[in-house]
Amino acid sequence: MKKTLVLGASDNPARYAYKAVHSLKRHGHDVVPVGLRKGQIAGIDIHTDRPTDSEIDTVTLYVGPQNQHTWYDYILDLKPKRIIFNPGTENPELERMAHERGIQTEEACTLVMLSVGNY
Fold this sequence. Notes:
This protein is α/β, with parallel strands linked by helices.
């Protein structure tokens, strides 16, 4: 399964990042939620630091492009295989930077991808 870092994680059940963590876990993926506030989702602690894990397959973004700049180096240094830009997080600058480093990008919805089996 694909180890996934969920950037923009929140313990608010109304947030899509919260739903994504639950869905990823339900589909058997290892999940690393990273957010601004401590909390838990599906029994997993939300990291408020920037954990360095060399085995991140996918970073799925739930942070708007206006707030992504401070995360660029962190995301790219993880060297994920892909970055998913969920609706509202599309960012041509970060996509270009990722492509320059050989990282695949997708403008898609993690929840939909999981539900139709093409995650």
